[in-house]
């Protein structure tokens, strides 16, 4: 059975960190919105060109373009064993489109990493990223990146007013996804306020439980 996941949660909840761990542990493709947008633009495809034009105009890429880019990415052979999506879907219409793309595939697992606004604020105000490779190490006090040796710096958009606005946008536009997936047997909400290791452990327990439940349902 292929393991197909979507990661849900507000900015700074740790979705990217956990998505990388899941992909490595299960040997599946990690697909992030930023990566596939960059790939589409660099490929020179029609969808990539459309996305580039929208971004150059300072606008958000439409659901139609994003769904098309995700569809192209999921058609690649490295997703046959499964995938973990980080940053898509962001809206209920995108989630509905993803359901249509999943026709003929194994069920979609939805994991919410739940973190409150105050905890997110403390976490993001302390967050630093590598100015060379873009890595975002969790909970480190290092000054240099362990991956490439680059300098760890404070992100320009990790200011309190910006963080609170991003959280408000998440509540308005993206948190309805939790309600969209909540009734499914393949949905779990994970307490994201704990350590990276503890969150990863609960995620693996949840995945094992859902996969076992799905396999049982397939046999009945």
What's this entry about, in short?
The chain is of the alpha/beta class and 220 residues long. The protein contains nine helices and seven strands.
Explained architecture:
By secondary structure, the chain is an alpha/beta fold. The protein has a single domain, classed as Rossmann fold (3-Layer(aba) Sandwich), CATH 3.40.50.300. The strands form 2 sheets. A 5-stranded parallel β-sheet has the order 2-3-1-4-7, sandwiched between helices.
What is this structure's SSE topology?
Elements: E1 3-8, H1 15-26, E2 29-32, H2 33-43, H3 46-56, H4 63-74, E3 82-86, H5 92-101, E4 108-114, H6 117-126, E5 128-130, E6 152-154, H7 160-174, H8 176-182, E7 187-191, H9 196-219
Parallel strand pairs: 1-3, 1-4, 2-3, 4-7
Antiparallel strand pairs: 5-6
Helix pairs in contact: 1-9, 2-3, 2-4, 3-4, 4-5, 6-7
What would the keywords be for this entry?
Rossmann fold, alpha/beta
The CATH first-level class comes to: Alpha Beta
**Mind summarizing the main beta sheet?**
5 strands, parallel
Number of strands: 7
Q: The CATH topology is what?
A: Rossmann fold
- List low-confidence stretches: none
What is the CA-based Rg, rounded?
Answer: 18 Å
Strand order of the largest sheet: 2-3-1-4-7
How many helices? The count is 9
């Amino acid at each position: 059975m292929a393991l197909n996941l979507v990661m849900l949660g507000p900015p700074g909840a740790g979705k990217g960190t956990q998505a990388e761990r899941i992909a490595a542990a299960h040997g599946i493709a990690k697909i992030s919105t930023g990566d596939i947008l960059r790939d589409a633009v660099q490929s020179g495809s029609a969808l990539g060109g459309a996305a580039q034009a929208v971004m150059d105009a300072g606008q958000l890429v439409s659901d139609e373009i994003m769904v098309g880019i995700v569809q192209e990415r999921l058609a690649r052979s490295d997703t046959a064993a499964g995938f973990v999506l980080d940053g898509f879907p962001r809206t209920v219409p995108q989630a509905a489109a993803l359901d249509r793309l999943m026709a003929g595939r194994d069920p979609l697992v939805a994991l919410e990493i739940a973190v409150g606004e105050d905890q997110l604020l403390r976490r993001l105000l302390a967050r630093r990223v590598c100015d060379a490779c873009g890595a975002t190490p969790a909970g480190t006090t290092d000054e240099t990146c362990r991956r490439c040796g680059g300098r760890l710096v404070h992100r320009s958009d990790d200011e309190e007013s910006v963080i609170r606005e991003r959280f408000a946008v998440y509540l308005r536009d993206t948190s309805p996804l939790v309600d969209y997936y909540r009734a499914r047997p393949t949905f779990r909400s994970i307490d994201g306020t704990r350590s990276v290791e503890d969150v990863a452990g609960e995620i693996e327990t949840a995945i094992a439980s859902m996969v076992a439940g799905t396999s049982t349902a397939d046999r009945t």
